[in-house]
Protein: Prohead serine protease domain-containing protein
Organism: Gellertiella hungarica
Amino acid sequence: MTIEKRIATEVRAEGRKLSGYAATFNQETRIADFQERIAPGAFAASLRSSPDILALVDHDPSRVLARTKSGTLRLSEDDRGLKFEIDVPDTSAGRDVLALATRGDLGGMSFGFTVPDGGDSWTGDKRELRSVVLHEISVVQSFPAYGGTTVQARSRKQRTDADRRIALLELEGIR
């Protein structure tokens, strides 16, 4: 099976942690010559059964940031999508990612997956992902495939009321 990759765009940095959404549910996007959306619960079986899921930089297996097996990557689903939290290592890749996240320069998050038999459904040129096998999530510096989320950095310093309002508007997709 070929591993497919999709991109979402929400990343937050706080201290040495990155958090956000690697995928969002019910957001339709164009992939090549078809429309695709991820159904709520699409990652549930994979999160329960996978022995190890990686967090990478740009899907590069030589640039590991964290993994579920060691507890440095935590993944869960909520009503919005696939939520993640990464304990970023003090490596050159980790420092680079944190610097870019703090500046707001990251393109977003992506995920690599395969679709088991019966895991998707097609209606014409529209595909719904209902169940996927998640292999990795990646911090990326490119453009997102899935919209509806934002990239923003958080730090331990106090934010102004204006900064908080802008961040909320971005999360709601208004800005």
